[in-house]
Write a structure and sequence with these properties.
single chain, 328 residues, alpha/beta, Rossmann fold, Alpha-Beta Plaits, 2 domains, 6-stranded mixed beta sheet, 4-stranded antiparallel beta sheet, 30% strand
Length: 328
């Protein structure tokens, strides 16, 4: 499949006024000004194919939002180039925005004092959506997101979760080919998060390309097969979650329920550490640099009767935290 998003050497620099923190420093800037340059994005390359669901993550100030703003056409890069759907977003923005949807978790595109349905009607005219397409999409989103209870309620009276569902529908009424999501589940309760995630999965199954930035690792684990990690303006990882688990953490936890209580000392194989024992349940940490999970499981099955066995993968949040501290 061909790439739907291509970016080469994207760099973005911001200039800010350098001033001493005093009254004297304030008056100095009236006559002579010194600026300092901060590089928010540093030669980032990106290729995304049609229908992918990609998570972009990184610590605060890493450059994630700057990258999204360039890809959506809000910012122009200092150097480098981006081409999306055959268009340069920051040069052909009016034409480009007809094919994208954008959601920023802390902002709404709905009119505050109007019912959500009135906002949808206004967006229908803004995007020139045919009546049959508009009605079909609104009916579908109303069912999937359960909007019927509050379509007639002014937006200012909606809860955060209800508003976010309406914002999702508003961003998708015109059938965008790419959707950019910036913290779409921030502040939502468990039920609202589940509903939004299930909706995004359905949307992606329909062929919509989705780019997600978030600090919620639950969103990443549940939605994004591929992740891109940005740190200090640079792309430090781009690949599958399974790949990064293997790259950063070599240990796996094996949880075994034995038929009878056993002497755990007999499980001290090379590369195995005993984490805990509770009655007939034993947790073992397997260092996959020294042995394999299958090899240890084979040894245990040959000697003992086992009721159940499972493998616990390291939490993605823990892995990402380790990357931020140590790098890859």
């Amino acid at each position: 499949m061909e790439n739907i998003i291509e970016a080469k050497n994207l760099t973005k620099e911001f200039k800010s006024l350098k001033r001493e923190p005093s009254l004297k420093g304030y008056f100095k800037t009236l006559f002579s000004r010194n600026y300092e340059t901060k590089r928010a994005l540093n030669r980032v390359n990106l290729e995304i194919k049609k229908g992918e669901f990609v998570g972009i993550i990184g610590p605060n100030g890493a450059g994630k939002s700057t990258l999204i703003k360039i890809l959506t056409g809000i910012l122009t890069p200092t150097s480098g180039e981006a081409k999306i759907l055959g268009l340069v977003p920051y040069k052909q923005r009016q034409k480009y925005t007809k094919d994208i949807g954008v959601i920023f978790g802390q902002r709404t595109q709905l009119w505050w004092d109007l019912p959500a349905k009135d906002s949808f009607e206004l967006l229908k005219y803004v995007f020139k959506i045919p009546e049959d397409v508009y009605k079909e999409n609104l009916d579908r989103f109303t069912e999937l997101l359960e909007l019927d209870k509050y379509l007639a309620t002014p937006v200012r009276k909606l809860s955060l979760g209800e508003r976010m569902r309406c914002d999702l529908a508003a961003s998708l009424l015109h059938n965008p080919k790419i959707v950019y999501l910036d913290e779409p589940t921030i502040g939502l309760d468990v039920e609202a998060k589940h509903k939004v995630r299930e909706f995004l999965k359905e949307l992606n199954k329909g062929g919509v390309t989705i780019i997600l930035t978030t600090h919620d690792m639950g969103d990443i684990e549940e939605l994004c097969p591929r992740i891109i990690i940005i740190d200090k303006g640079k792309k430090i990882f781009d690949g599958q979650i399974s790949e990064i688990r293997k790259k950063i953490r070599s240990d796996r936890v094996l949880v075994i329920d034995f038929h009878d209580e056993i002497d755990v000392k007999k499980l001290k194989f090379n590369g195995v550490k005993i984490l805990s024992k509770e009655e007939n349940r034993v947790k073992l940490e397997i260092d996959t640099r020294k042995t394999t999970v299958s090899e240890i499981a084979k040894r245990i099955f040959s000697k003992y009767i086992v009721h159940d066995i499972s493998i616990e993968e390291p939490e993605i949040e823990e892995i990402i935290r380790e990357i931020y501290k140590k790098g890859i």
